[in-house]
Design brief:
Elements lengths: L1 H4 L4 H7 L16 H14 L9 E4 L2 H14 L8 E4 H11 L15 H11 L17 H9 L4 H5 L5 H9 L7
Parallel strand pairs: 1-2
Helix pairs in contact: 2-3, 3-4
Amino acid sequence: MNNILEGLNKEQLQAVTHKEGPLLIIAGAGTGKTTVITRRIAWLLSEGLAKTGEILALTFTDKASHEMQERVDILVPYGYTDIWISTFHAFGDRILRENAIIAGLDPDFKVLTQSEAAVFFREHLFEFELSYFRPLADPTAKTRISHPKLTLNTPRILQLKPKPLLMTRLCKSWPSSRWR
């Protein structure tokens, strides 16, 4: 077990050996999040605090997911079998595919790419029962709205930054209650 905790700083050690309740790790790039998560998985297993089938580790990119899988495989003796290490998208896809019939979906459903979704949305927009949410401009403006919302930019903050004319119109017309 010593090699699991070796080389960790005080905060990383505290996160890896956290015992009570859920743990959320928020840190910037290059701060050792992947190291903490992979060593925490190994530590939980070595301490007998979790079984492999009780661990779920999610990340945003395929690259990070593969790196996490490789690191856990090295840290855990005899490898692992039931640990779910994947991207959020792959996890959602797996859950939907395993439960497609229960969810009322065709098991051979297809997840659309962003560009396919934009084309589908543009072609079928007026078939939806929408009044309040019907866009007045390009339906692909969704990404221009989503990004500021995800980065916690409110309309007031956005108005202080340079942006295209479309963003200015969206900021003025988008109700502030929708930014929460």
